[in-house]
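To close the section, here is one more complete example, presented without commentary so you can practise reading it yourself. The ligand is flavin mononucleotide.
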Amino acid sequence: MSERILLNAFDMACVGHQSTGLWTHPDDQGHRYRDLDYWTDLAKLLERGGFDALFLADVLGVYDVYGGSRDAAVRAAAQVPVNDPIMAVPAMAAVTSRLGFGVTVSLAYEQPYALARRMSTLDHLTKGRIGWNIVTSYLDSAARNLGRGQQIPHDERYEMAEEYLEVCYKLWEGSWESDAVVRDAARGVFTDPAKVHDIEHKGRYFEVPGPFLCEPSPQRTPVLFQAGASPRGTRFAGTHAEAVFVNGPNPGVVRRSVDAVRTAAREAGRDPRSVKVFAMLTPVTGESDALARAKFESYLEHASEEGAMALFGGWTGVDLAGAPSEQRLEYVETDANRSALASFTTADPDRAWTVGELARFIAVGGRGPVVVGSGVTVADELERWVSEADVDGFNLAYAVTPGTFVDFVEHVVPELRRRGRARDSYPAGTLRENLGAAPGPLLAADHPGARYRLG
Ligand SMILES: Cc1cc2nc3c(=O)[nH]c(=O)nc-3n(C[C@H](O)[C@H](O)[C@H](O)COP(=O)(O)O)c2cc1C
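Output:
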């Protein structure tokens, strides 16, 4: 039987995540991001479709690079307004029992002691279904509003992230022994003080004597998601990530990132196949190819190219306002998200992108591909990506929400199930086991975080 294709839904607590302007389409309900029932309905739908996780993106600033102003992003609702992604998770967990939740939290602006506790709280409340998408952030606008003035330089962000993870591992794995909590009413002992340890961390960026505040949660360390794709980001992902997000307009571009991350995992002493790689992709599907195509055409009519360029400015730090649409895109080094620009320039020497082509491409589905067709056509295309790009699955973005996910569950999931590529039921309770990132709920033995584990 063929391998199962892993599936995450990709959403954000905002009106327009990757497909800017589509909020004006009559089928889009993105404005309901403020309503708890938007999230609980979505979670139930995804669990019915056998999805591994709902992955929630987040940023802490507005996209204000394009034209030196935030106006284009604000007008088009390009990832603004945006709420905190964490709040809806316990509500979604209450109406599901197996779906995982990958939550993005930046480590650039918060002490590890506080962030580690939030993650453990979520792991307890979801009974082990939490993943943390580790981001180092890329928007200067976030840095300005969070007391830093400007971002920490690109590669140094990853150096800080290395120490951040070390502190988190010490807290999650090395502070409380597994049998520390005894709840012995007769002796009046809830927790044995001898089994709770200070971590005594003193490093370049952080000083945390410990101990951790939370008792061990089902997975202890949440499943670690990461999306670094620059050389330094890839090394970080190869060392720490159990699931990696990659992004690129075609399987050839993505394949390079996948090979690089699997090599980095091997070099870090880990099984490269235990790192699950997801490519971002937007499926537009319906009863037939023609109906799906008609849907896509109607989406294009509502897409905002200006909003797309606002997103591109924030991702890359490159302002293309006023650039002629036939101008060719070139790579420049910035302190933003380096791989976003590379994927349209250096990563594919056979393809030159103009500014106009870029704006049209990004306006539906962001930086990833859009696959349009019946359930059979989309399933064929997913299988092609799996074989050509060597990805384990997909981070499925929406054109309209929740319509894109409803359509996918109705038309593509049954076809994938027929091919043995999607599951009917979940084997286990925790996200880590369901993803196949480790044989049990805890970090795999070859993961660097496992070194901090107490007996
Ligand atoms: C599919 C995908 C999702 C991402 N989601 C977020 C996000 O929600 N928030 C964020 O700050 N960065 C996000 N990123 C950006 C990454 O964290 C990272 O900054 C980016 O991939 C660039 O890494 P690099 O600087 O090593 O090239 C995402 C990247 C990808 C590919």
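Once you have examined the tokens, check your reading against these statements. Residues 6-151+162-174+212-452 form a domain with the TIM Barrel fold (CATH 3.20.20.30). The chain has 15 helices and 13 strands.
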